[in-house]
């Protein structure tokens, strides 16, 4: 039986700036709650902003996962568990050396960048996620950094810097590459949405098999593999579809609501 539904946001629950969160998704959340399900956001987004607002609306007394498992907080954004980013000074010095714009995210929901290395498009990203970014001298931060993002407008700059960053111990890199830019997420080695789900299972006293995960992107793979029921959106990448137990419609075509219906049917059959 599924007791808890963990859900990615972008491409799963949130259908983009034009459509936002479909009303069918909110209706499905309410239908699931009436049937006894609990819900948890499980996103790569930074802690806070619109993601936290949605988390508070869907499960105001619950616990939610941000930063791909590096941040776990309650619905008010108060940190319950976090994974500090190791070797931060070395990572920052490499960004400065290679002149690659970057920002850092902290356990309390802070987001900071250096004034002369502002990530391109940061204003647009702030508008999308709702988490403000502020300039700071990083050596003076009194918050714990859990994640960093590098944004190279010229992918060639990233290819030059990549060997240096790969040599930093105890970190994992997630690359999002296109012909016009390279975006690289840096997190503590071994931390993922799957470790976030394991923490939630312990917190709620559940078996991991009692958790369902709904997702669409590569950063959902670990959670989909470990969950008791993995559901891929119709717009998911092929790797996600390959590891999932069930595939539903596109996020823009009520796919999330379809996923909740499948979970309810799954529980009915299990009874």
From TrEMBL:
Q: Does the keyword Hydrolase apply?
A: yes
- The organism sits in which domain of life? Bacteria
Q: Which SUPFAM superfamilies match?
A: HAD-like (SSF56784)
Question: Which terms does the record give in the GO molecular function aspect?
Answer: magnesium ion binding; phosphatase activity
Which Pfam families does the UniProt record give?
Answer: Hydrolase_3
**CC terms in the record's Gene Ontology section:** cytosol
Q: Which UniProt keywords apply?
A: Hydrolase
Q: Which PROSITE patterns match?
A: COF_2
Q: Which InterPro entries match?
A: HAD-like_sf (IPR036412), HAD-SF_hydro_IIB (IPR006379), HAD_sf (IPR023214)
- For whether the record's keyword set contains Hydrolase, the answer is yes
User: Which NCBIfam families does this UniProt record tie to the protein?
Assistant: HAD-SF-IIB (TIGR01484)
PANTHER family associated with the record: HAD SUPERFAMILY HYDROLASE-LIKE, TYPE 3, PHOSPHOSERINE PHOSPHATASE
Protein name from the UniProt record? Cof-like hydrolase
Q: Which organism is it from?
A: Allomeiothermus silvanus (strain ATCC 700542 / DSM 9946 / NBRC 106475 / NCIMB 13440 / VI-R2)
